[in-house]
Structure formats: C-alpha cells, structure tokens
C-alpha cells in the first residue's frame, strides 16, 4: 500500500469518525428548537423556543440544579482521585496479604446489579443518618466511581512504576517534594482521565441519586431523564445539549490547568 493511499484512508477514517460524533449533536441541537417534526420529514415543519423557556425561564430551576450537580460531581471526582492514587499505588507496587481480595472488593459496585447495590446501601445509609442528604449522595457516587478510577490509576502506576521516585529520593528529595515534582506529573494523564470518568458517572446518575437523596437532593439528571422517558424530544434534546456542553467545559477545566502547570503536551482529552 502506497503512502498516499494510506494517508487518504486515514483522513477518511478521521473525517468519518468526526461526522459520526458531530452529526448526532447537530440533530440534538436542531431538536432543541423544533416545534413539529413528524416522520418521515427530513426537516422540521415548525420551530419553537419552548426549550429555552424551560431551561432559562427560571420556573424549572434547571440552571440552579445544573450548578448544584456540577458542584456535587466535582467533589465526587476530587474525592475519588484522592482515594484512588494511594489505593492504586498500594495495589500495584506492594505485595501484602489480602491484596487480591481488595482488588476484587473494589470491583464489587460494578459486578453487583445497581438495584441490589442501591437497596443495600440505602438501608446502611438510613442507619447512619446519611439518607436524604447531599453527603450521602456524594458518598454513594464515590463508591460507584472508585472501580473505574482505581483501575485507571492502577494501569498508569503499572506502566510508569516508581523508579523515578526512587531516584528522586536517592538524590535527597523529601517524600512531599517527590510526590509533587515526580509522582503527580507522571500520573497527570491518568488523573485527568480518572477525574473525567468520575465526573461523568456522578453527573449522569439518576436512580441511585433519587433513592439515596430521597427527593431532597435534586440533580440535573433527575430533571433530564423524565423528559427523555416521556418522549418530549424538544425538551429532552435541550437538556442533553446543556449536559454535553457542561461536561466538555468541565473536562477542559480539568486538563488545561494541569497541562499548563506541569508543561504536559499530550494527554487523553483535547490535546
């Protein structure tokens, strides 16, 4: 295969992938301003600003709920990565009794059906007085995120090892200086990926948030999913567009400061 043909094929794949991602987003945006769009018409018959009134009219509380959800998901992402970094390093770099049991226990929230897990954790949280509270919602989201963040950080730790940290310590760096100057820069791509994954998981939770929050904690997903289930495509599409935009903005806010601080050229997102 000649180089020119290979280049053309790669460009075609890139453009096709871009189209597959962007075209559904364009349809969502179009549906957000649609009044009537019956099948099999290729374009809407009428347009409406009903979705804008729903989101920005003030009576739905969508923007306030969006801010609350973003804040909760950011806290969940931060807690998940704070727990995942030492947990992943312990599991990957050290051998101790019960290591395989801990690795299996970390995966339990993924292996156990969500309904079963939610019912069990609700009973436990009721006894602790955490049900119907923001703290309870944050903790249950962290539990759901840990399998993914720990696995990502474990893979990063396994790939990088700790030889650079050992060299830094031999050269006289303190443990804190080694962690700041060596461990974090090396693990930054994994940290960004883990934070992003944790944010997505937390931000999109509906059932378990409703169960643990008890209706007292309202998140953006709890406003969005009823419209999706009811078949109101105009409002559901508008909520989905805001969902996607807010997620992308949070991803950028995760990546840009870290890349700038540690002078990292390429990471998993928006390189």
Gross geometry = globular
Low-confidence stretches: 266-271
Briefly note the structural class of the backbone. mainly alpha
SSE succession? HEEHHHHHHHHHHH
User: Within the largest sheet, what's the order of strands?
Assistant: 1-2
Helix % is over 70%
Q: Please compute the radius of gyration using only Cα atoms.
A: 22 Å
Strand content: under 5%
What composes the largest sheet?
Answer: 2 strands, antiparallel
Count of helical regions: 12
Distance between the termini: 30 Å
Mean pLDDT: 84
List how many beta strands DSSP finds. 2
How does the SSE layout of this entry go?
Elements: H1 3-32, E1 34-36, E2 46-47, H2 50-56, H3 62-93, H4 99-106, H5 108-111, H6 114-128, H7 134-160, H8 163-170, H9 175-203, H10 207-213, H11 220-230, H12 233-262
Antiparallel strand pairs: 1-2
Helix pairs in contact: 1-12, 2-12, 3-7, 3-9, 7-9, 7-10, 8-9, 9-12, 11-12
